[in-house]
Design goal:
This protein has a 6-stranded mixed β-sheet. The chain has one domain: Rossmann fold (3-Layer(aba) Sandwich), CATH 3.40.50. The two termini are 15 Å apart. With 121 residues, it is an alpha/beta fold. A hairpin with a 2-residue loop joins strand 2 and strand 3. The protein has 3 helices and 6 strands.
């Protein structure tokens, strides 16, 4: 499952991932992968990967990091700033919009798997 997270800096992309992990029962620290680019988690019998690609300057950095190995069909992938790398298309896209008070989340499914996931919510 590939989930693209879109929104301006400070829109709450990492906070959303933190909330999802907590809802799945993860009790460890959930930190932003801004500097590491990737943080792996295991929660609710799922292997999750949280990418923050904001700092990537070009596709060669993506290739050199070896991140393609994480896209093996077994992981749930949350990807912030997906436009910065040649990542797979999203099953689900979440656009976070900063409002005067709070945030608005617009959630779209692009695949049958994405639709099935959203139907469970």
């Amino acid at each position: 499952m590939v989930i693209h997270l879109n929104g301006d800096l400070g829109a709450g992309k990492t906070s959303l991932v933190r909330g999802i992990l907590n809802a799945l029962g993860y009790t460890g620290r959930v930190k932003s992968p801004t500097y590491t680019l990737l943080e792996p988690y295991h929660a609710g019998r799922l292997d999750l990967r949280h990418f923050d690609l904001y700092r990537l300057r070009d596709e060669s950095e993506w290739e050199q990091a070896g991140f393609r190995d994480e896209f093996d069909g077994n992981n749930v992938l949350f990807i912030e700033w997906p436009e910065k790398a040649p990542v797979p298309p999203a099953d689900i896209v979440i656009d976070l919009i900063i409002l005067h008070q709070g945030r608005r989340a617009i959630i779209k499914s692009n695949t049958a798997a994405g639709k099935a996931c959203l139907k469970q919510l």
